[in-house]
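During the no-cost extension, the postdoctoral fellow (Dr. R.K.) reprocessed legacy sequence entries with the updated structure-token encoder. One reprocessed record is reproduced below for audit purposes.
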Amino acid sequence: MLVKEIMSRKPVTLHSRDTLEKTVRVFAKHRISGCPVVDSRKHVVGIIANTDVLRVIDAQGRILKENEDLLSVVLGFLKGDAKTALKKILKSPVRKHMVRDVVVVAPEDDIANAVSMMNQRDIERLPVVSKGRLVGIISRKDVMRFLEK
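Re-encoded structure tokens follow.
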């Protein structure tokens, strides 16, 4: 079976100039934990996940609790003493915090190879690229939904 048969064809994306604040809102709105970062021509320039955002917040001295989601952490910050610091952090561009070395797959790649890459590198999602442009995304959730059928 091929990646194109189970990938999500309309992935949520961000641009490198978008802020972490927008990232948090996009993740919450779409109930996702990460997405590709693309340029104006849909070339993948990075990927950002909630763990990247949490790492920035944690670096500012916040002790994260187990099972705490990104939105609740941000809201907690806004209510506390760190409000000013967090607002500044959330205004920073995605390009400062995204992972630039992105592992991608092609639509014609075998699903087993994609799953193997996710497992070997401990990553949740792989952008699907054709002719240098983003055409979809395959995540562990997509694979699990396929297995469920």
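The longest strand covers residues 133-139. DSSP finds six helices and five strands in the chain. The remaining legacy entries will be reprocessed before the final report is submitted.
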